[in-house]
Amino acid sequence: xxxxxxxxxxxxxxxSVPGETGYRPTGRRETKPPAATRVxxxxxxxxxxxxxxxxxxxEHTTVPFAYDAILLxxxxxxxxQDDVLPFLRNVTRGRGxxxxxxxxxxxxxxxxxxxxxxxxxxRELLSELRSALSAxxxxxxxxxxxxxxxxxxxxxxxxxxxxxxxxxxxxxxxxYSSYSSCRQYREDxxxxxxxxxxxxxxxxxxxxxxxxxxxxxxxxVEGVRAGVEQALAAGNRGDQVEIMFATHSIPTADAxxxxxxxxxxxxxxxxxxxxxxxxxxxxxxxxxxxxxxxVYQSRSGPPSQPWLEPDINDAITALEGRTAVVIVPLGFVSxxxxxxxxxxxxxxxxxxxxxxxVTRVPTPGVHAAFVEALVDLVQERIEGRPVEERANATSIxxxxxxxxxxxxxxxxxxxxxxxxxxxx
Length: 424
Prior knowledge:
InterPro entries: Ferrochelatase, Ferrochelatase_C, Ferrochelatase_N. It is an enzyme of class 4 (lyase). The chain has helices spanning about 85-90, 100-110, 120-135, 155-160, 180-195, 215-235, 250-255, 270-285, 310-320, 335-355, 370-385, and strands at about 15, 25, 70-75, 140-145, 165-170, 205, 240-250, 290-295, 325-330, 355-360. It is α/β, with parallel strands linked by helices. The chain starts with 13 loop residues before the first strand and ends in a 41-residue tail after the last helix.
C-alpha cells in the first residue's frame, strides 16, 4: 500500500446538536456500521429507499419535491493517534488487509499527529452550507455523517429520524463517478439504514455528481490563474510552466465501469472523462495557452493490479523543457490527507529535487462559489428543474440524479446492497 487510503462497543456514542457544530462524539466507537444484508424494495419500485420522486428511476428528476432534511456525507478521518488504525480498518473492511500493511499508510496520519483535517473541514462546510441554505430561503436542517469515522452515518440518520425526518437529500463530498467516490457512498447509506433500523421509515435521494457545476470549478479557475501568475512572477516563461491536474488513482477495472458505461472508448471510463472535461473547462477560463495534463496519485493496490496512470511523481520526473509545475488537486473537495501528504509532501519534494519551481492551488473548501453550488444542487431538486436549465460548464453533464444500472461496480467485491440508484 504505497499511497494514502481514500476519502462497536456501544450502540450510540454521539449526540445531536442542532446548532452550527453538528454532531459531537460523546464516547469512542471504532467500527462503522456492518454491511447491509438486504435492501428493501417497495412494491413495483426499482430504486430502493428512494422518495416518490426517484423510485421509478428517472435519469433526471423534474418533479418538484419537498425534502425534510439534507444529509452531508463525508469520508471521515481520525482525530488522534489512537484513531488511526481503527479508522483504516473501517476504510479497508472486507479486503483482508493486515494491520502491518495498514501501518504503511498510518505513518502519513501519524506525521500530522494522527489527525486528518477532513472532519474539521466538514464542520466548516456544514456551518457554511446551513447559512447559505438559510440565506436562500431553504428552511431545511442539515445532518452530517461520515462513512468511516465519527460521526457515523447511522448515528446521523438515527438523529434525523428522532427529529421526525422522513425524506433526505444527500450531498456526498465527492464530485465524480467511481466506486469509491459514488457507489460506495450508496452502499454505506444502505448499511447505515439497516444498522439504524430505518429501512422502512427513511428515504434518501442524492444530488447529481457535481464535477461540471460552475461553482465547483470556479475555485480551481481562480487557483490556476493565481498559480500561473506566481510562476511567471518567479521568472518562469509561459512555455516552461506545466499545469498538472491531480486526482486519486483507481484500479483500471473500476474505472472502466464508472460513468454508467457511457465512455467505452475512454481510457479510464467516466471517471477519467469527467476529470478531463472539468480540467479542459478550467484551462479554457484560466490559462488557455499553457500546457497541462491529468495525473494520478495515492495508488494503494498491489503492483500486479493495473491502476490509472501516470502517477504524478512519474509525470514530474518525465517533464522536459519545464521549470515550473502548478499542481491542481482537481479530484478533491478539501485539503485532507491525500492533498497534504501526497501532494504537499511527496509531489512537492519530487519537483524540488528536480529543480522545479512548484505550487499547489487550493481545493474548493468553503469557497463561496462552491457552497452556493451545493445550494443550487438542492434547489434544482426541490424545484424539479428541467435539465436544460441546470448549471453545467463542461461538455459532459449535467450528470444523472439517479445512478444507472451497474454504474461503478467493483468487480472484485461484486454488487453489494446500495440505494439511490437502479438495481443491481
